[in-house]
Amino acid sequence: MKLSGRRVLIAGGASGIGRATAEIFHAEGAAVAVLDRDGDGLSQVVASLSQEGAPPVASASCDLTDEAAVQESILQVAEALGGLDGIVVSVGIDLLKPFTETSASEWQRVLDVNLTAPFHLCKTAVPHLQTARGGTIVHISSGAALRPLEERTAYCASKAGLVMFAKALAVDLADDNIRVNAICPGIIDTPLFRQSFESHPDPDAELERIKDRYLIRRIGQPEDIAKAALYLSSSDSMHVTGTTLSVDGGRSFH
């Protein structure tokens, strides 16, 4: 029960890493609020977590790139939980395309989801964390923030920007006793990852090529990242802020 009594907002919590985070945090005693634009996915998460005697669960469906919608949704779930002590931002889209074929609108869309949405979320959530004191923010970035990938200029730039956003935010919020950290996952078995090889003419060969980048040739599970977020959101990491934790099977140095 590492998060007993804490109230944590999980953005992008309807599937993948976000959903695993909501499940593990709730099992560890946290009241959780889940944001996502996937209303059906949200309903499934809430139904699976809502049990008699368990910590509260709140949810709100919204487009995380819409500042007004984010503000309204966070106000709604914060009221439902009686405040917020932490936030995990697990949102992102990919764009696999040569730079010379990438349009300005595609570039902007990736930055809107991967970098501006986290800004909106933090901008709205931070006042609640300031009130609670001892707050935590965890951003789910990517190993591509540390070591680039071919044909992903927009994705790499946005995720690298998210890492530095987390570091700068840690500086700004230190006096409020709010810790901010980032996690850089490697290949994780999520719909976003599967898109990167399933459309290839030879998916099996492409998957093997991807795995060759990793010292540990294993496809990670969403729970691997959720457990890292648990560490950074609990008292176990009281002396950790402004850090970038690679959970990537060794890719960033291999």
Total number of strands: 7
Number of domains: 1
> Can you give the mean pLDDT?
93
Question: Considering DSSP H and I runs of 4 or more, what fraction of the residues is helical?
Answer: 40-55%
Order of helices and strands: EHEHEHEHEHEHHHE
Strand order of the largest sheet: 3-2-1-4-5-6-7
Distance between the termini: 35 Å
Question: Structural class of the helix and strand makeup?
Answer: alpha/beta
Query: How would the global form be characterised?
Result: globular
- Could you name the CATH topology? Rossmann fold
CATH H-level superfamily title:
NAD(P)-binding Rossmann-like Domain
How much of the polypeptide forms β-strand, as a percent range?
A: 5-15%
How would a textbook summarize the main sheet? 7 strands, parallel
What multimeric state do the chains show?
A: single chain
CATH architecture: 3-Layer(aba) Sandwich
Low-confidence segments: none
* Rg from Cα: 17 Å
The CATH class label is Alpha Beta
Organism: Fodinicurvata halophila
Domain Ketoreductase: 6-190
Protein name: SDR family NAD(P)-dependent oxidoreductase
Keywords: Oxidoreductase
Structure in a nutshell:
Its EC number is 1.1.1.-. The protein is α/β, with parallel strands linked by helices and 254 residues long. It is 46% helix and 14% strand.
